[in-house]
Amino acid sequence: METLESELAAARDLDVAALADAIESIGFECTRCGGCCTGYAPDEPGGAPAGAGVDETGGDVKSEADDDTGGCNGGDGGDVDREPHTATVFPDEVRRVAEAAEREFGEAYDWRDVARPMPFGLDADAEGDPVGETFEWALATDDCGDCTFYEESDGRGACTVHDARPLICRTYPFSVALEGTSQPMGEAVDEAGVVRAHECEGLGRDITRQDAEELAAALKERAVRELEEAIGVRDGYDPGASDRADGDVVVFDSEGPKEADGTPVDGD
Ligand code: SF4
């Protein structure tokens, strides 16, 4: 079992040119299908492709609460439930996305507008509200379970905070085979060297060397950041934080324990 520190050292040693070679050999071009930005049906490996919200039985893909939403991306109500999109976002990325959204939409974005406690590991109380401790933030989702920053028109998806989007978005559908780093959306469907590729309709398409190198650099940055974050969470874990918190959910990130709205839990 490797330690997080040894994996972090390995991540810092990753050769960007070799990563770019691997990405080039696998091939990738974003088709703007929105699959990695949207909620997904339980039997789908990823999100619902833009404009493809109709399931094989003819029913439209619907969210947990879309009956009065006027329709979701990729569908407008029907009989197939969607799981909400979950993408990890680091605390500094939450602030950067909030700033980008404020510039884009001309209104204030607070923490909760950008991120929510990652639901994995949380329990539900008698009313079904989440309770417990979790160790990541996820991008906020809308009533359809799609990323709140995803927009779609004429079957083509777009990120409204594109230049500030988190590393997980900049590097999808790739990951690196290091323990302690994320492996998004199920098993790898292709691999080259230490690079793994996950379900995505854009795989196998030609990619320019420049784009491959940019993606490779972001992939390395993400691996390093994920491991730094994991080490920060491990070292900063405070078992008394949940007792001191005002809310029922505490998120431990590398900056310390936070309430669900991103405010720090007060110390002893
Ligand atoms: S931030 Fe942008 S790229 Fe990332 S999931 Fe949301 S819409 Fe997609």
From TrEMBL:
Q: Where do Basic and acidic residues bias regions lie?
A: 232-247
Q: Which domain of life is it from?
A: Archaea
List all Low complexity biased stretches.
Answer: 44-53
* Listed transmembrane segments: none
Where is the stretch described as Disordered? 44-95, 232-268
PANTHER family tied to this protein: PUTATIVE-RELATED (PTHR35866), YKGJ FAMILY CYSTEINE CLUSTER PROTEIN (PTHR35866:SF2)
Q: What is this protein called?
A: Fe-S oxidoreductase
Organism of origin is Halorubrum tebenquichense DSM 14210
